[in-house]
Amino acid sequence: MNCADIEVVEYRSGQEAEIERLIYQSKKPILFKISDFPDTFDLDFYIDSHNGKTSYTRYDSGKNIIESSTARLQDVLSWIKEDQPVRIFGQMYPDHINDKLVDKIPLWKKIPFRPRYFKSSLGKALYFFGGKGSVTKMHFDRERNSNLHVCLHGKKRVLLFDVSQSRNIYKTPLKSDSEVDFKLPFDKSMKRYPDLAKATCYDVVLSPGDMIYMPKKCWHYIEYIEHNVSATFAFYPKRIDQLLGTLSGVFYLGFSFQGMGLDKTPTYKKFSKRYIHSRGLKRLGYKVIESLAFVAIYPVCLYTTINKFVILKKRPY
């Protein structure tokens, strides 16, 4: 696996128009260094800001998930502050709390806000908290959004691949996940996934004030080096991507374990294994089957998504 140097840009207030043009044109990740970024957005700030329940994931010493449950938000954030291997994925806060962060990043105000699933209630900031030893597996956002992901407190490692590397990192069919377990040593993974040797990545450690731009379908894997607070502004440079992203997001929610759980069936697992290792004409054949399957089961996925996430109002992530 090869590592490329990510483009680094200094971001100062007043450069918003220039930076907006840059990210709208780029198909590669960019690391922005925000000058004079305040150190106020730490875990204590969010512990004191809001209460309620949240969903969390806990990991063992091998960075494997051992628990997914719910608890008081303040309790989970306190565990993270103690550097327990616990992660909160996509926490939402009220507007009056979000605005305090957004005010410090004028670029987020400059870019038109086109929310995922057309739900303005998602807000301009989605928060991610993690203690040392927690991870986020390799994936890209199935809603096709671009991201500006800013580190607010602590350090985290982000491993990125652009969409051209999907085959080299063994994308699974009908999903936006990689079959490769990136928390394992590279040499061990190479024995099973030899095309990893052809892949080119960006390996970045984020510190407070670092903001990384991820274009649509940018693969990312995250390791929490120490307890960390980060936030993401998800946006669509083009309205057509917002529409297509909603369609693909609806499919995934209905298809995955959150919906019908078709990705856990023996039939899917067998097909996925053949798909990820296929090459040449065989690969093309499996891609055709994948496209036909998407069309065939989309109505069922749509029904499941509406029932679970609209009628029953289950949280989609």
TrEMBL record:
Entries under Gene3D superfamilies matching the protein: Jelly Rolls
Pfam families, A to Z: Cupin_8 (PF13621)
Domain JmjC, first and last residues per copy: 94-252
Transmembrane segments: 243-263, 284-306
Record keyword Transmembrane present: yes
Family annotation (InterPro entries): Cupin_8, JmjC_dom, RmlC-like_jellyroll
Assigned keywords, A-Z: Membrane, Transmembrane, Transmembrane helix
Domain of life: Bacteria
PANTHER family the record matches: HYPOXIA-INDUCIBLE FACTOR 1 ALPHA INHIBITOR-RELATED, HYPOXIA-INDUCIBLE FACTOR 1-ALPHA INHIBITOR
Name of the protein described by the UniProt record: Cupin-like domain-containing protein
Organism this protein belongs to: Marinobacterium lutimaris
Lineage: Bacteria, Pseudomonadati, Pseudomonadota, Gammaproteobacteria, Oceanospirillales
